[in-house]
Give the backbone structure.
Amino acid sequence: MSMRHFFGFSLITSLVLLLIFSGAALAQERDPSEVTDDEVNAIARQLYCPVCEDIPLDTCPTLACIQWRELIREQIAMGWSEAQIKNYLLEEYGDMVLPVPPARGFNWLFYVIPPVAILAASFLFYQSLKSWRGRQAAESEEHQQSEPPEDEYIARLEEELRKR
């Protein structure tokens, strides 16, 4: 092997090693103190506290939520994506961390029952209103027919009009 080939081989090997080690240095984890509160809260506001009811994770003052926000901070520092963090918390604490339950299992009832109940209530209201108007019209007609005429002349006139 000539000096020229050796120099070329050494140069290529050095460049490859430099790229490998610089890539590893760039891929290192961030320090959790470098992760901003905005980055943490961007994810935390999309999740709910599994302990407190109906309180977003970014505003919950409990110690547990503070710890969960720190967990999110550490996961961001380790390079986890937003989806990975959400999936981790979902696996760890269940559907209660989501603002809206996913439409699977019995949760689909939360999406079906309200519209069906509204439609059923509207139908019952319509039927009641129709029945009430029909009854009111029938009572009005009965009232008009059962009322004796006040004047004999009017009674004969109405009788003549009915014959025609």
Q: What stands out?
A: The mean pLDDT is 79. The two ends are 130 Å apart (CA to CA). The chain has six helices and no strands.
